[in-house]
Amino acid sequence: MFHNDGFHALDRQECLRLLAKVPVGRVVYTRQALPAVLPVNFSLDTDSSVLLRTPASSDLVRAIDGAVVAFEADDFDAVARSGWSVVVTGRATVVTDPAEHERLSRTGPRSWVVTGEGVFVRIESEMVTGREITVPHSTD
Amino acid sequence: MFHNDGFHALDRQECLRLLAKVPVGRVVYTRQALPAVLPVNFSLDTDSSVLLRTPASSDLVRAIDGAVVAFEADDFDAVARSGWSVVVTGRATVVTDPAEHERLSRTGPRSWVVTGEGVFVRIESEMVTGREITVPHSTD
Fold first, then answer.
1. Assigned domain for B2 exists
2. What share of chain A in percent tops pLDDT 90?
3. A59 near A47, Cβ under 8 Å?
């Protein structure tokens, strides 16, 4: 898609390499039948799934646990009109296994704002797509 | 929402003021029953609706014309763990009125990649929400 509009597609490995370079992405989901989006800091697990940390009582957890969501990250240079974006699409689940929670407490993302324990949410990287601006910009 | 997690809500005017400061945002919509998201450059019209410019034949136009979508922009400082995000939710429509198209050709956003005419898409700012990190970050 969008092959003819000045972007080129990135392969899965390149997408994951770029994802690892940025601290913040955006969870894209449905809330009360409307499209919703929330920026969060994140990290990638060893299996390339996306990991978030959030309060257990958050609206986000209620909305996405068990649902297929998209997770987007990007980096653009407005002056050079260049950049990339990557989207991971997959099922989001709250990590409930105590050993896994313990492992992620040591290795997973640190929330910018959660002061208590919080929960970890894993988004499986079932589909990973990305694109990059590669053409010289016009002067229009 | 999320009032107790270190963020504070921004009012509509503050949201629109912040939106005007960044060149790129993300359209959040549904494609083939899955959550989808696409970064685009944009501008705000005089009535505070969000304006995009895209190829007339793009998958994006087919997916969002006539649909309610979300449009998100943000700016975060990972070192300071501070920043803001704004979400506009409203109906997206392709601008078909010739006079309006002509006006936007002069005043609307310039696509980074569209080399031909392209079409303008307007997202009505029916609901505008935003939040900002305001608490000092923990050292955890």
1. no
2. 71
3. no
DSSP A112: S
Does residue B139 lie within any of the structural domains? no
Q: Is residue A1 situated within a structural domain?
A: no
The pLDDT, as a whole number, for residue A125 is 97
User: Closest by alpha carbon to B137, among A79, A135, A113, A91?
Assistant: A113
d(CA B83, CA A41): 12
Domain that holds residue A109: 7-133
- What does the pLDDT read at residue B134? 72
Interface touch A28/B37, C-beta < 8 Å: yes
Q: Considering its fold, how many domains does chain B have in total?
A: 1
Chain A stretch 17-56, residues whose beta carbon is closer than 8 A to a beta carbon of chain B: 23-24, 26, 28-30, 34-39, 41, 54-55
CATH number at residue A48: 2.30.110.10
Residue B74 lies in a domain: yes
Residue A64 three-state SS: helix
